[in-house]
Amino acid sequence: MTDVVPLIEALTAVFGTRAVLTAESDLEGFVEDWRGRYKGRAACVVLPSCTEHVAAIVRLCAAHGVPVLPQGGNTSLCGGAVPADIGIPPVIVSLSRMRQIRRIDAANGSMEVEAGCVLQTVQEAAAAQQRLYPVSLGAEGSCQIGGTLSTNAGGTSVLRYGNTRDNVLGLEVVLADGTVWNGLRVLRKDNTGLDLKHLFIGTEGTLGIITAATLKLHPLPTHHALAWFAPVDPAAALQVLGLFQAACGARLNAFEMINRRQLELVIEHVPERRNPLGELHPWHVLVELADTGGGDEMADLLQRTLEAATQAGLIVDAVVASNEAQRDALWTIRHSVSEANKKGGVGLTTDCAVPVSAVPAFIEQATRAVHALIDGLDILVVAHLGDGNAHFIPFFTFDAWHALANPGATATALRRVVNDIAHELHGTFSAEHGIGQTGLGEMAHYKSAAELGLMRAVKQALDPRGLFNPGRLLP
Ligand SMILES: Cc1cc2nc3c(=O)[nH]c(=O)nc-3n(C[C@H](O)[C@H](O)[C@H](O)COP(=O)(O)OP(=O)(O)OC[C@H]3O[C@@H](n4cnc5c(N)ncnc54)[C@H](O)[C@@H]3O)c2cc1C
């Protein structure tokens, strides 16, 4: 068993006690996820202030043979950022003190930021220069750029702008031997061999620690038109999506769907959230258009498309946001789902994506499969419909959950039947949250031996001693 005490002493000697946390009470927020579902042990938490500090920490950990777990805002929904209670407790490297926005080049549409910058801070800094950093998600007030890069986060703007991977120009990464790779490119075109940044995006800190990034910026939309409507069913919602795509092209900014039970939970558990429509319909969609001008024209387009969909029998009710406050209120409902679900019970979040055209079949078949296991179990659906990404969430009240004989086995079985349906429809079990601890068994189950072999070869090449996040990503 590796003794971590000499390493902690060495880290403390270099960085001081304010940057090396060891007391149990200080570690609490770092070793447990925000929903309280995963908890592990850590040797200590280190809080570097610059890239050179991160490199020195990695070198010391390597010298002492102790693993390293990079951590951002710890908002992972799959236990990605906290240690598993196995093996040598890792050193958690929290990037939260590395929050500098190094530079913004508005004309180039790029900004260089440190990994610990909170996503919302980055959005606001870009907006101050009339630019948009488009990655947006419910946790944007606390998740960090490094975390969003390492999980290739999606969110509500993927339909128009792509996921995080599509909005990065370059990275700075500390490698397993402590080398700093400066890949902070600012180019939209650069065909000089392997595009190495993609090795570190979406690989959950298993190949290196991202310390900074050059992000891609877009023109800042100044005009928005937003509606909340009730489609007849998911198939009708998909047809409405087609109508909006045909009518609005690139101005279609978001197309998000939730089901009735999900909306009920938000209204029940999050203060000041109300049903935007007269009654609680089975399905609800938020649709948003955005552009740098032409607000009146866009409002007309939204209205006309909704009317055409209503006449075609696809929509039963709709409301259009008439000002900024109403727009914010509707978005806030959408962004409150995770908070509501945490307060309301135990939701077994899944993260499937299927071809967009297959979302209605996925929801229908997954519902049948879950009810075949537990008749009548509540199901929440939160879908980034325009991306084919549907969080299909079997949901228990706290009492029902505690009454289960073996909750762990029940959770695994329920997730598996849902993921199986996605797989049969040529989809994936992991669209945007990452693998974390929840998805490790699914990697072994769904990924081919060839694919896992290639991933192991890359891991072996970049991190031969298995220093970074051992036991993660690769079963
Ligand atoms: C309310 C809520 C809503 C959410 N909505 C969405 C959504 O719509 N779409 C979506 O994709 N996700 C969503 N998430 C999940 C989560 O916010 C994202 O996965 C986010 O990208 C994680 O960022 P983080 O900084 O909290 O990372 P953490 O949770 O701290 O870490 C996640 C993973 O990245 C690794 N990591 C972190 N920082 C670094 C680094 N600098 N270098 C290398 N590895 C690193 C960690 O080791 C871990 O494996 C939501 C979460 C919440 C709580």
Automatic annotation (TrEMBL):
Coiled-coil residue windows: none
Molecular functions (GO terms): catalytic activity; FAD binding
GO annotation (BP), single: respiratory electron transport chain
InterPro entries (alphabetical): FAD-bd_oxidored_4_C (IPR004113), FAD-bd_PCMH (IPR016166), FAD-bd_PCMH-like_sf (IPR036318), FAD-bd_PCMH_sub1 (IPR016167), FAD-bd_PCMH_sub2 (IPR016169), FAD-linked_Oxase-like_C (IPR016164), FAD-oxidored/transferase_4 (IPR051264), Oxid_FAD_bind_N (IPR006094)
Keyword vocabulary terms for this entry: FAD, Flavoprotein
PROSITE patterns: FAD_PCMH
Highest rank taxon of the organism: Bacteria
Pfam family, one: FAD-oxidase_C
Database matches in SUPFAM superfamilies: FAD-binding/transporter-associated domain-like, FAD-linked oxidases, C-terminal domain
Domain FAD-binding PCMH-type: 38-220
Similarity-based family: Belongs to the FAD-binding oxidoreductase/transferase type 4 family.
Protein name: FAD/FMN-containing dehydrogenase
Species of the source: Paraburkholderia megapolitana
